Amino acid sequence: MYFKVKHLLILVGFACFLQAKAEDDLKRGLYFRSFEVDKDKRTCLDLTPDKDLIFKDGFSIEFDIKIKAESFGYVFRIIGNDTLNIDFLTKPDRAGFSLVIKNKTLLQYNDSEIGGSPINSWIKVLIKLDPEKNEILFSLNNVEKTTSYPLTGLRQFNVYFGGNTHDIFSSTDVTSMVIKDIQFYNHKGKLTRYWKLEKHALDCVYDECVADKAMVVNPIWEIDNHVKWNKRKTLILPDLYYQITSNPYQNLIFFVKGKNVLVYHMTNHQLDTIRVLAGIPYNADLLNQLVYDSARNELISYDFDHKQLARFNFQSRTWNNEDNSNLTPRYGHHSKVYIAEDSLLVAFGGYGYHKYNSLLFEHSGTISEWKSYDLSSSIPPRYLGSMGYLGAGKLLYFGGYGNESGKQEEFPRNYYDLYTIDVHNHEVKKIWNIPSIKEHFTNSNSLVIGRNNSMFYALAYPNKRYASTIRLHEYQMEKPEYRTAGDSIPYFFNDAESYCDLFQNSDSSELYVVSSYIRGNNSEINIYSIASPPLNPDEIFQYPPIRSRKWFWLLAILLPIGILSVFFLYRNRKTTAITTTKTTIAQPELKKEPLQNGTEEIPVVYQTLAPEKRASSVNLLGNFRVIDKDGNDITSNFTPTTIQLFLLLLMSTIKNGRGISSQELKTILWYDKDDDSARNNRNVYINKLRSILKSFGGGIEVLSKDGYWTINLDKNVFCDFERVLLLVNTLQTNVHLNRKLMEELVDIALRGKLLSYLQQSEWVETYQTDYSNMIIESLLEFTKRDEVKTDLMMLLKIADVILLHDSIDEDAIKLKCYALFHLGRKNQALQSFNKFTAEYENLLAAKHNLSFDEMVKKSDPPAPSDQLPSFD
User: Which residues on neighbouring strands pair with residue 287, listed in sequence order?
Assistant: First the structure.
C-alpha cells in the first residue's frame, strides 16, 4: 500500500510539474498601445471601475513591466480620495523612470541604476505607501529609494494603468509597455488583489483574490499570441514555384528560385536577399525539392532523375549544378526529411502521371545515387502526407490522399493513419488510424514533433476546395485523438500550384506557417506565426473566480430574520388605527405605433434608448453586447464557444424559425470530435448557455424539438438585428414611408456590421453577406422615395450605413457628397470624395470615372444605379 501511494504521489507531483512548466511557457501580460496609434486607440486598464480600493493604513503594489519603446507616458496613475495623483511615468531620457505626486517629481531612476537599458527586459516594480511614517518606498529591480510625503487621511484609491478617463485626472499619454502580475498588499503584507493579466474575458479581467473586475480599453493580450496566427510578412515575388525550406537551428526560412536565395529571419522578421554568383538549383517546377544540411551549412536542391544533389554554398554563393533541364514531375507534394547525423535525404510518396506513389527514396552523402523502397504493402500510395523526424533513424508519417492501387481513377480518398518508418531497416509500424472524420482534410508536407515525442503538430486544410483555410491540429502519439488549436489562416489550394508547410523557431518554440500560391505570373508567399503551446479560445478565457462563501452563510442567517421582520411590520401596519394616504406614481404610458400591415406594434421607445443600455437586449450589430432584465451587462459571462453556440441558435431561429440541427452544430463547432464526444460537448455548452441566460428570467429560452435547437426571445427582449429585419419589411410593404420607423432603422443600422467581432468562418460569412446585401439594397430603394429625397441628413446617414458594408459603393459616395455639399459642409464633402477615390483605386487598381462636380452640382440627389459597375 505504501508503495502504491508513494508512486501515486510521484506521478501527481510530476503532473503538477508539467502543468507548471506549460504555464511558464505561456506569454503573459497586457500590451499597452501607445503613441504608435491615435489617442482613441490607446490602452487603458482601470482596476477600479465599480468601486474604489480601500486601504486606510497604507498598502503596497507590485507588478512586472517590460518597456517596448522609449516614450513619454504613464505606467500608472493612482488617485487618492479623488484629490491626489500619484504617477509612475517613463521619459525618453537618462532619467527614464519618475515618481510624481501632484505636480512635483519626487524620485527618479536612470538606466544604469537598474542594470542597463529597460527595453524588452522585465523589471520588478514595488511602490509602498506608509501613512504612519508619511513615507513612500519606490523599488525597481530591488533598487530601493524612499521619499517623505504627507499621506495621512488617504484611504480610498482609484488605480489606472496606461491612459484613463477620470473626470479630473484623465490622460492619453501611455507608455509603450507590457504589464503582468499586478498585486496589492495591505499594511500587514497580506495579498488582497492579484490581476495576473493572463486569461481574460472580452473587455475585462478578474483578480484572483476576491474576483474584482478590471476593465480594459483597446487591449492586446500577450496570451492571445497562443491563439491567433500573426501574419508576419507577405511576399509578392516574380516568377512561379519557389522552393522553400528552413534552418531550424538558426531560425531561418529560405525561398529559392533561379539566381536568388531569399532568407527570412524568424527572430526579427527581416528578409535578406543573396544573389547567386554561379550555378542554379534543379529546375523543379511544380515541386518543392529543397532541404537544409545543418552539418555542412548548405542548401540541397534535388531531383529524382539526377543522381547528384545540387548544393548551395553560402560562403561562395554558388550552386554546384549547371543542369537546367525541366522534367515533368513524378512525385508532386511528396514528404521529405534530411537527417543530418546520417547525411541522409529521405522522401516518401507523391503524385505524378495520374498515379499515387508509396516509394521511399533515400540519398546518402556517401553514395551518389538514389535508392528506392516500395512500402505499398504497409502504407497505401498517397501524396499530401506529413513527415517528421523522431530521432534514432525513425520517421513519423501521417495522413495524405490516395488509394490502395495508386491509380488516380480508382476511388482516391483521404487517409488519417499514423506510421513510423525506420530508415535503417525500412520497417514500417502502424500506430493508429482515426476511424471517422466528418469534414475531410489533408496536411502540410512537414509535421513538428513536440513534448518528448508524445505529440505532434500538422497543418490541415480541405483539399477539395479552392478558397479554404488552414488549421493547426495537435495529435496525440499514443492514441487517435487530436484537437484544433489557434484560429484559421486563409488558403487557396489548387493542387500543384499551392503549397503550405510548418516550421518551428527553436529559440522561442513559436510555430511558423508558410503558404504559397500562384497569382497571375507571380508567387504570393505568406508567413504566419503563433506562440507555443498553441491554445483554443476557450483556454484563454477567464471565468469570474468563485467568490468566498462567507457571504452566502451570512445571507442564510440574515434572510430569515429579514423575512420575519417584514411580516411583523406588515401585520402591525394592518392593525394600526392611523390611516395613511396612498400615493400612486403614474407610470409613463409606452406609446406604440401600429405597423402598416396591422399585425404587430413597434414601441417608439426604442428610438430614445441606446441598445446597449436597454434592459433585456441582445445586440449583434457593432459590438456584441448582452444586457439582462435588470440592466446588467453580462457579455463577459460568454466564452468564445458559448458566443458561437448562442449566435448559431439565434441566427438560425431568426432565419428559418426552425433553428439548427444537432448534426449542423457538430459540423460547425465540434467537427473534430466523434459523435459521442460532440454530443457531450454540446450538452455541456447548452447547459452553460442556459445558466448564463437565467438572468433574463425566462426572457430567453434554449429549446429543443425534433433534433433542432432554437432560441425563443420573449417580446420584451430587444434584438437589434431582428428589429432591423422587421423595420425593413414594414417599410417596404408600406406605400407611404413612416418617417419615425425610417429614422429608427438608420440609427440602429449605423451601429455597425453584423457579427463583426467573430472570427471568420463560413457560417458567419453567409449571414454577414446576406445582411449587407439586404441593408444596402433596401436603403438605396428607400432613397427613391419622395420623403427621403429632400432629407439631406437622412441621405447622409443612409450613405454612411452603406459605406460601413461597402467602402467603395458608388451610389453611397454620391449620396454622401451630395448631402454634405448641400448641408454647407463642402470641405467634408471633398475629403470624403478624395478618400473614396483613393480607396477605390487601391482596391480595384482602376481610377474612378466620376468627378466631384458631377456628384454635388445637381438640383436633385444622384439616383442610385440600377446595376453594379462592371470591370474588365
Answer: none
Order of strands across the sheet with 522-530?
230-238, 522-530, 511-519, 498-504
Q: Which of 366, 398, 361, 402 is nearest to 382 (CA)?
A: 402
Q: What is the pTM of this model?
A: 0.67
Residue 272: count of CB within 10 angstroms of its CB: 10
Residue 247, pLDDT score: 94
Angle (deg, nearest 10), helices 792-805 and 762-782 = 160
Cβ-based neighbours of 732, under 8 Å, separated by 6 or more: 778, 781
246-268 average pLDDT score: 93
Residues constituting the chain: 872
Vertex 334: Cα angle to 333 and 335 (nearest 5): 120
> On the CB side of 774, how many CA atoms lie within 13 Å of its CA?
18
The Cβ of residue 850 has, within 10 Å, a number of other Cβ atoms equal to 15
Residue 153 · residue 98 · CB < 8 Å: no
Distance CA 781, CA 863 (A): 10
Q: What is the mean pLDDT of residues 653-675?
A: 86
Neighbours of 314 (CB within 10 A): 12
- CB 497, CB 517: distance < 8 Å: yes
Between CA 699 and CA 527, with CA 201 as vertex, the angle to 5 degrees is 125
Band (869; pLDDT cuts 50, 70, 90):
very low
- Among 719, 694, 559, which residue's Cα sits nearest to residue 630? 694
Q: What is the pLDDT of residues 686-723, one digit of tens each?
A: 999 999 999 888 889 999 888 889 999 988 899 999 99
The torsion angles phi and psi of 613, rounded to 5 degrees, stand at: -95, -20
Residue-level pLDDT at 566 = 43
* End-to-end Cα distance, the chain: 81
Confidence at residue 301, expressed as pLDDT on a 0 to 100 scale: 93
Asked if 485 and 462 touch (Cβ cutoff 8 Å), the reply is: no
How far apart are alpha carbons 404 and 619 in whole angstroms?
Answer: 53
Helices (H) and strands (E) in the chain, counts: 14, 53
Report helix, strand or coil for 859.
coil
DSSP state of 104: E
Can you spell out the DSSP letters for 234-249? Answer: EEEEESS--EEEEETT
